[in-house]
């Protein structure tokens, strides 16, 4: 599954994890392959279901 980097950054900022969000913004591509980056997403405690939700 491909997730936009902006979605990951938004989730981290919602949690107050601004330093991690800034790092993600610098280091990850605009489109993040969740399979390739599964370890990183797990380290950041991001659930794929959480990332699939579209903001209303």
Q: Overview of this structure, please?
A:
The model has no long low-confidence stretch (mean pLDDT 92). The chain has one domain (2-52). The chain has helices at 5-14, 18-27, 38-43, 48-52, and strands spanning 2-4, 31-33. It is globular, with a radius of gyration of 10 Å. It is built from four helices and two strands; from the N terminus they run βααβαα. It has 56 residues and is mainly alpha-helical.
Overall pLDDT confidence: 92
The sequence of SSEs as H and E is EHHEHH
Shape: globular
Largest sheet: 2 strands, antiparallel
Kindly, what is the distance between the CA atoms of the first and last residues, rounded to a whole number of angstroms? 21 Å
User: Could you estimate the helical fraction of the residues in percent?
Assistant: 55-70%
Strand arrangement within the widest β-sheet reads 1-2
The number of helices is 4
Strand segment tally: 2
The quaternary state of the protein chains shown equals single chain
Q: What is the SS-derived class?
A: mainly alpha
* Whole-angstrom Rg: 10 Å
Q: Any low-confidence stretches, pLDDT <50, length ≥5?
A: none
Q: What attributes characterize this protein structure?
A:
56 residues, mainly alpha, 4 helices
Summarize the structure.
Helix content is 55%, strand content 11%. The protein has helices at 5-14, 18-27, 38-43, 48-52, and strands at residues 2-4, 31-33.
List the SSEs and their pairings:
Elements: E1 2-4, H1 5-14, H2 18-27, E2 31-33, H3 38-43, H4 48-52
Antiparallel strand pairs: 1-2
């Amino acid at each position: 599954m491909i997730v936009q980097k902006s979605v990951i950054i938004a989730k981290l900022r919602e949690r107050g994890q601004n330093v991690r969000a800034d790092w993600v913004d610098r280091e990850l591509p605009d489109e993040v392959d969740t399979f390739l980056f599964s370890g990183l997403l797990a380290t950041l405690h991001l659930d794929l279901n959480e990332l699939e939700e579209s903001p209303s």
